[in-house]
Specification:
About 40% of the residues lie in helices and about 20% in strands. The chain has about 230 residues and is an alpha/beta fold. A four-stranded mixed β-sheet has the order 6-8-7-9, sandwiched between helices.
Length: about 230
């Protein structure tokens, strides 16, 4: 389990308590990437006894996850599951998210609040989820319903392949989908529960700015992976 956390001292402990130690026959190890900040998020992770990497400054969720992918792969992870630190995802659904990878039915699994249950009330954000899913589907030829959900599972081979394509320090969920689809990996969804944030305020910008930035990431990533030379060469 890979969690990027920025000033989530109030929420991270409860999230870590709910992460199972086993997913089917697989042992679960947790790595928290503390993305800078000035609160006690790092100490919460350390006290929970999980692997903890503390970045000296805030680099952004995308940058923290890229480093987390590299660390997980370097230590022999077969599958990597990402989870938000704010309590909006339910760690108990880990087995559901990872099952298609274990069954060799997919290389990349995305949790979907639209196929599952969305317990939030922000209608503007809910509409944005639908709109951007349609845009992503049009350019990737996928059938994704929730492109911005942070609850995701990856086969290690996929991550090794797509990490060189990743550039975004924020709003990176769309970038991962576009890169994986461009490289021809199998992408599926699984229904999940989407909870209101446990406490505090989102570190993302307001709805309007978030929407603009998310659209920018979709456009720039699509152009980059479609028309530029393979970054691994």
């Amino acid at each position: 389990m890979l969690i990027a956390a920025y000033e989530e001292e109030e929420n991270l402990g409860d999230v870590l308590k709910e992460v199972p130690t086993m997913a089917g026959d697989l042992e679960v190890s947790t790595l928290v990437m503390v993305d800078g900040g000035s609160d006690g998020t790092d100490q919460v992770a350390i006290d929970a006894g999980v692997f903890t990497c503390v970045l000296p400054v805030n680099l952004g969720q995308g940058a923290a996850l890229r480093l987390g992918y590299e660390l997980a792969l370097a230590h022999g992870a077969r599958f990597v599951v990402t989870l938000d630190a704010d309590g909006q995802n339910d760690p108990s659904e880990l087995s559901t998210i990872i099952e298609p990878l274990v069954a060799d039915e997919a290389d990349f699994v995305i949790g979907s609040r639209r196929l599952g249950v969305d317990r939030t009330t922000d209608r503007f954000r809910q509409a944005g989820v639908r709109v951007y899913a349609r845009i992503l589907n049009a350019i990737t030829h996928q059938e994704i319903t929730d492109s911005s959900n942070g609850f995701r599972a990856f086969r290690a081979e996929l991550l090794r392949d797509i990490v060189p394509y990743l550039r975004q320090d924020q709003y990176q969920t769309a970038e991962v989908v576009i890169a994986a689809a461009h490289r021809g990996w199998r992408i599926v969804q699984r229904p999940t529960i989407w909870h209101p944030r446990a406490s505090g305020q989102s570190k993302k910008s307001g709805n309007f700015i978030f929407g603009l930035q998310y659209a920018r990431v979709i456009g720039t990533t699509w152009l980059r992976v479609t028309f530029r030379r393979d970054p691994r060469n």
